[in-house]
Amino acid sequence: MNGPTHFAGGLATATAVSLVFSVDLKTGLIGAAIGAGAALIPDWFNIAFPGIELAGFEGHRGVSHWLLTALGVAYLFAGRWPGLWQYCLAGYCSHLFLDMLTERGIPLLGPLPMQFRVAPFRNGGAVDHIIGALSLEQIPVWFTGLSFRAKRGISATIGETLRSAQGDTVNQLGNRYTGLDHDDGDLDREVG
After folding, report:
1. What is the pLDDT along the chain (192 residues), one digit of tens a residue?
2. Is there a single domain that holds both residue 130 and residue 162?
3. How many angstroms separate the CA atoms of 37 and 25, rounded?
4. Contact at 8 Å (CB) between 94 and 10?
5. pTM over 0.85, yes/no
6. Quick one: CA dihedral 165, 167, 160, 74, positive or negative?
7. 104 and 55 fall within a common domain
8. Cα separation of 100 and 161, whole Å?
9. How far apart are CA 68 and CA 172, in angstroms?
10. What is the domain count for the chain?
11. Which of 31, 119, 132, 162 could pair with 87 in a Cys bridge, judged by C-beta atoms 3.0 to 4.6 Å apart?
12. Burial (0-12, 13-18, 19+ Cβ within 10 Å), 178
């Protein structure tokens, strides 16, 4: 994928992270900027260090496109800005995922010599531009959600909401199985 698509993907992914962690709007904006920048890091290795094989043993999409490198960069980022590392990791990983959508794929589990590819789309093609546009389209929606949550004082994270919903479902199924579901007054009915 091209730089603008990576930028939009990192921005959108980091904004989604803000919703998952229920951060305030200011942190969400800072995180979105970090995610967008981190999404460009894997391709910057080639630009920042010309003539040095830091980009990988096979040139572009080498070491800089390993999951291990993404974790290392996020770890270094966490050492400097501990509360914002998840945005760095999300942006970097969005780059890796988007490059897995291309014909060439990436060596995700490097140094193992395997290429990972999800779909065979062409860099700079129509799909590249569509993904970039769709990523940008989602950002205002997510920031609206962040703003709404901040104004309403909603602090439950998506994870807490899902765990609560899962617990309710388990309790309902348990009651039904044991015959404690009193909706129709028949305690001896068969389940299923």
Report:
1. 888 899 988 998 998 898 888 888 889 889 999 999 999 999 887 654 555 554 444 456 788 899 999 999 999 999 999 989 999 999 999 999 999 998 889 999 988 888 999 888 877 788 877 887 777 766 666 556 655 555 555 444 444 544 454 454 445 444 444 444 444 554 455 444
2. no
3. 18
4. yes
5. no
6. negative
7. yes
8. 31
9. 42
10. 2
11. 31
12. exposed
Length of the chain: 192
Q: Which domain holds residue 21?
A: 3-153
Amino acid found at 151: K
Judge if the upstream peptide bond of residue 120 is cis by omega within 30 degrees of 0.
no
Q: Which tokens is 9 given?
A: 């993907």
Burial of 90 (0-12, 13-18, 19+ CB in 10 A): buried
Both tokens assigned to 7: 């930028």
